[in-house]
């Protein structure tokens, strides 16, 4: 009969690379580990290791079995993690996953006001890319996510949507910084730009807008996140089209932002998998985020 202890010993040897180190990991003697391995091979009817003196080398069967064992242990770790999330909800913890554009700009002030509410739960904040946030929602590792991508219906439901339009950010001393009206691709023809990743929807739409107006979109430097783009703009690398939240933070740091035409749509949503024990607090948190977003320029 194969026991969990045998599998545990096998995994430890594969991870440690030797019976000696595996015994130390498991806090047992080397003969005990060797016996557990032998019993496992006998129980499975497989030769998992080649033995040359005191050295063990995993066979092809052993390597294949280890991959399955790891999947099982990862599954167990997820069960433990999920249980921790459930305990957190009962203990008054609201778990939030958010895209960086929100987490690095408006959210700190939102959190300050939210946590001042009587009886407010502790917020566990994860600032991660939208795709990773949706993965956390699918695994039930958070109560609500703010993402620029919508999840599949079976993963979560939309509880709020936040449409907005992009703005152009510039260094304070840029020749185009003066004025308040919209800037167009024609005005930015050949001007150095700090661009988001080539596969991002914002980059695609911005390049399309330039192409449709016959203007050259000149990339000076490329970065993955709007927050990084704003820092590069501050350093004088060029201008960038970013979301209004990042534009607000850029202005607070002494930069300039202006409307951009034609409109580049930025939108994100709040998604949850069920109201749960923190349903009321989750709704209040989403409302607080909505209030902060409503303070942004509409153009």
Automatic annotation (TrEMBL):
<dbReference type="Pfam" id="PF00126">
    <property type="entry name" value="HTH_1"/>
</dbReference>
<keyword id="KW-0805">Transcription regulation</keyword>
<dbReference type="GO" id="GO:0003700">
    <property type="term" value="F:DNA-binding transcription factor activity"/>
</dbReference>
<protein>
    <submittedName>
        <fullName>LysR family transcriptional regulator</fullName>
    </submittedName>
</protein>
<dbReference type="GO" id="GO:0043565">
    <property type="term" value="F:sequence-specific DNA binding"/>
</dbReference>
<dbReference type="Pfam" id="PF03466">
    <property type="entry name" value="LysR_substrate"/>
</dbReference>
<dbReference type="GO" id="GO:0010628">
    <property type="term" value="P:positive regulation of gene expression"/>
</dbReference>
<dbReference type="InterPro" id="IPR036388">
    <property type="entry name" value="WH-like_DNA-bd_sf"/>
</dbReference>
<dbReference type="InterPro" id="IPR000847">
    <property type="entry name" value="LysR_HTH_N"/>
</dbReference>
<keyword id="KW-0238">DNA-binding</keyword>
<feature type="domain" description="HTH lysR-type">
    <location>
        <begin position="1"/>
        <end position="59"/>
    </location>
</feature>
<keyword id="KW-0804">Transcription</keyword>
<dbReference type="InterPro" id="IPR036390">
    <property type="entry name" value="WH_DNA-bd_sf"/>
</dbReference>
<dbReference type="InterPro" id="IPR005119">
    <property type="entry name" value="LysR_subst-bd"/>
</dbReference>
<comment type="similarity">
    <text>Belongs to the LysR transcriptional regulatory family.</text>
</comment>
